[in-house]
Amino acid sequence: xxxxxxxxxxxxxxxxxxxxxxxxxxxxxxxxxxxxxxxxxxxxxxxxxxxxxxxxxxxxxxxxxxxxxxxxxxxxxxxxxxxxxxxxxxxxxxxxxxxxxxxxxxxxxxxxxxxxxxxxxxxxxxxxxxxxxxxxxxxxxxxxxxxxxxxxxxxxxxxxxxxxxxxxxxxxxxxxxxxxxxxxxxxxxxxxxxxxxxxxxxxxxxxxxxxxxxxxxxxxxxxxxxxxxxxxxxxxxxxxxxxxxxxxxxxxxxxx
Length: 256
Known about the structure:
With about 260 residues, this protein is an alpha/beta fold. It has two domains: about 5-155, NADH Oxidase, CATH 3.40.109.10; about 170-245, NADH Oxidase (3-Layer(aba) Sandwich). The protein has helices spanning about 5-10, 30-35, 50-65, 80-85, 105-125, 135-140, 170-175, 185-190, 225-240; strands at about 70, 95-100, 125-130, 150-155, 175, 205-210, 215-220, 245. The strands form two sheets. It has a four-stranded antiparallel β-sheet, with helices on both faces. It has a four-stranded mixed β-sheet with strand order 5-6-7-8. The protein starts with a helix and ends in a 9-residue tail after the last strand. Belongs to the nitroreductase family. It comes from Gordonibacter urolithinfaciens.
C-alpha cells in the first residue's frame, strides 16, 4: 500500500494524546438531531484530544462489534476519483474504512457501529458522510486483511458547512403497532427517521409486537439496505432507550 495512507491508517494505534481534554460538545441525542451528511471539508487537521477521543470510541466499536474499522488521516486519494466528484465530495483528506471479517451479518454490524462512530464524531465537532460507491474502493480495500471485507467508508473532517436536512418519510410509513404505541416506540421511530440511508430510501420497518415490549426491525430488499438497517437500529435505540424494549430474535442481526 502507498506509504502515506499506510502510515496514517494506524493513526489510532499511534496516538499519544489522552482523550480527557476532548469533552463532547453535545449529547448523542443532540448529535443525532444536528448530524447531516457533509461532502465538502476544510483543511483543518483532526488531532490532539479530538483525535484521541474519536479513536477511543472507534476502539470500543471495533471491540464490541467484532469489526476492524480504521481511521485514515491526510490521505486524499480515496475521495479524489471521478466517482467521488460525481458524488460531490470535495477536499476529503480523512476517512474511516469500515472493515470486518466476512459474515452474514457484517453489513448490519457495520451500519450499527459505524453510525455510533458517526454520532460520536458529530459530538466532537466533526462532520461525516457515508459512502458506499462514490469513493475508490480499490484504494481503500488494501486496508482489508485476509477473509475481511470492506463494507463502506465514512468521509470525515471539519465540514465547510454543517449540511442540511433532507426529505423524510412519515413515522406511519416505517412503523406498525396494534393500537396506540407507547411514547418510547414513537421516540425510537422518530430517531430512526433521522438516520442516513443509501439514496435516502429509508426502507427499514419497525413493528411493535403484541407483548408491547418487543420490536421487530426489518428491511426491504435493495442496495445496502442491511447497512441502513444497522444504522436505523442504532438510532432507534438512542431514541427509545434500550431499557424500554427488546429486539425480536431474528438471527444474524446486531442485537436481535
